[in-house]
Amino acid sequence: MSEPVGVVPARRRGLADEVADRVRDAIFGGAYPPGAQLREVELSAALGVSRGPVREALLKLEREGLVRSEWHRGAIVTTLSDVDVAELDSLRSALEQLAVRLVVAKASDAELAAIDDVVERMDRARDEHEMVRCDIDFHDAVYAASGHRRLVEAWRAIRSQVHLFLLTRIGVSSEGYLASIPEEHRRLASALRERDGEKVLELFAAHRGQALDVLTGK
């Protein structure tokens, strides 16, 4: 696994949203693993902003489920509990089944091509963190192809937590991950293009199940 990349200075000062983007990227890049403390003073110095925007950014990330506040430690990167894992998996399953049915029923060739494009990017992923980003981008493309605005909004509400779910998965075991993930998604994309509803639902369920099995030790 490549060395984690830390935060980089913000281009514009005083923007809490940009600070949140930088800290989120650092979490997703592995610089701050689950359980890591996010200290306002250190972040403000690294990002070149005052503590106010950092505090606002951490609150935004807390609303996304990426950060939790503990009275004796301050802000920390969320560590998913067994309940968190089970709830995310069940909610993701419910949303994804609707998305897949809609894609099979009405996605355009251009929307399916956008899904294929993400699969091609997976072949060029340099490390596990980049592959996780591609995995999330793949699901972004699937939801976009569903043509269901509120469904896309529901996905975005849990997107960061699902990203953390997948990071936790590679933290438990990354053996064979880079080699297997592109082919898994290639099969998913192919089934979507074939518009084989039952087959694609089974493949998506198996795909989710593999990550869940790693996290639950099955």
Rg computed from alpha carbons, rounded to a whole number of angstroms:
18 Å
Number of helices: 9
Q: Summarize the helix and strand pattern as letters.
A: HHHEEHHHHHH
> Which class best fits the helix and strand makeup?
mainly alpha
Query: What value does the average pLDDT take?
Result: 91
Low-confidence stretches: none
Q: How far is the N terminus from the C terminus?
A: 24 Å
User: In one word, what is the shape?
Assistant: globular
Q: Using DSSP, what is the number of strands? A: 2
Main sheet summary: 2 strands, antiparallel
**Strand proportion:** under 5%
Tell me the strand order in the biggest sheet. 1-2
Give the proportion of residues in helices: over 70%
Domain HTH gntR-type: 13-80
InterPro entries: GntR_C, TF_FadR/GntR_C, Tscrpt_reg_HTH_GntR, WH-like_DNA-bd_sf, WH_DNA-bd_sf
Pfam families: FCD, GntR
Protein name: GntR family transcriptional regulator
